[in-house]
Write a structure and sequence with these properties.
This protein has about 500 residues and is α/β, with parallel strands linked by helices. It has 15 helices and 15 strands. β12 and β13 form a beta hairpin. The chain binds 6-O-phosphono-beta-D-glucopyranose. The site of 6-O-phosphono-beta-D-glucopyranose has 4 residues, from loops.
Amino acid sequence: MGSGQWLVEKRATFRSDSFSDNDNAPETGCLSIVVLGASGDLAKKKTFPALFNLYRQGFLTSNDVHIFGYARTKISDDQLRSRIRGYLTGSKEEEVSDFLQLIKYVSGTYDTEEGFQLLDKEISEHEFSKGSVEGSSRRLFYFALPPSVYPSVCRMIKRCCMNKSDLGGWTRIVVEKPFGKDLDSSEELSTQIGELFDESQIYRIDHYLGKELVQNLLVLRFANRFFLPLWNRDNIANVQIVFREDFGTEGRGGYFDEYGIVRDIIQNHLLQVLCLVAMEKPVSLKPEHIRDEKVKVLQSVLPINYDEVVLGQYDGYRDDPTVPDHSNTPTFATMVLHIHNERWEGVPFILKAGKALSSRKAEIRVQFKDVPGDIYKCQRQGRNEFVIRLQPSEAIYMKLTVKQPGLEMSTVQSELDLSYGQRYQNITIPEAYERLILDTIRGDQQHFVRRDELKAAWQIFTPLLHSIDNGELKPQIYKPGSRGPAEADELLAKAGYVQTHGYIWIPPTL
Ligand code: BG6
């Protein structure tokens, strides 16, 4: 049995509790994956490499899968292949060439039927050549496109490219943020897409949900007795969810300036992580049960208090020629969210994201309250913390106080450390996109954002975003390569975060 096959079977076992839109249908039909926007950046850097990795591991085989690239640019199959080739790394030349042969390119516009009819013809020919029974084929459309064309592309797919009948086959679309700019524009987009496709056919990607340690969150929380009694307001002082990048908006200034850090990172990636940290135990692992619990968390978030928001913009951001000279767009934000429910009342959830900072990392930091009646108080360096390092150097570690080894009776801050690089040396951690595309093929929507989740997420941030957009709130300028505005650290302290001095966790080297 090849390792790919083994993985297929293992994962199949794990997700036996999940369901898809065609729950009882055998999924054996021919699979066509269409990458729309095939000549763009996202497709080259993320979508095709993810498909290649799935191919390499045996999840996609030339027996039943064909990949179509679609875009406006008039290029040949080979020209598309050579554009992609450089991004397919870590494998033998022969394997790369075999994969590239699975890709066919179709050129056309995003709002006229002609191109999509041609696309349908190509897909149908491929299905016919594989002897696929009509109606059993599977068609996955990956939108590596700007959301402005989502509605017209959805219309064209619906008119020209749907799987024709329901003999176990399906049509699914994968879309990615930004889903609008605020509550109203997002709802309008959802309504337009919702008129054409069922929710069960729509896969809204938030690639943070595909990260290994984000996927581990529910396992950690609900499969370990340790955490069950501790995970609440009685024991937890505060929670931080942090995203830092050590580079600016390089090359993406035009896009970024329209959105800013709150729409780019906080409203989606960090908020999704918050949901998994804060949600109640779902009835089962069924995607709808999990998403139901996430929605409840979002609906319990109180309106954001502007005194608990610090915005920043790095010095030099406006030098980008695609950024307006007087831009008010934040490239940094720290804010406190409060969840009004029995478990979390009074526990600040601090969300922090910034570009052009001193380091690159994403992590969840759960800080526990002080020990009551502490007899070691005078020697204590810091509080217990449970840290989940999402990237880089994936790790889960627990900061705790222990006796300093030796003859003296003194205490020291140390850690229980599960560093993935050390513990799982022969395992390659899959890329988020790889995993999420596989979930789409399998019809598992657990790690995708449901429409009501999206709506609730926009409800939380829309007033704040409008206040930033109309200049009522202004970002502080900070130095690139710094920690961001000093006010952010002050806000952290005000929210009750106690920093540990004289201790730093160093990821173990192999
Ligand atoms: C994207 C944002 O969604 O996530 C980018 O648009 C950001 O601005 C990126 O750089 C970060 O993703 P990752 O996986 O590198 O943390």
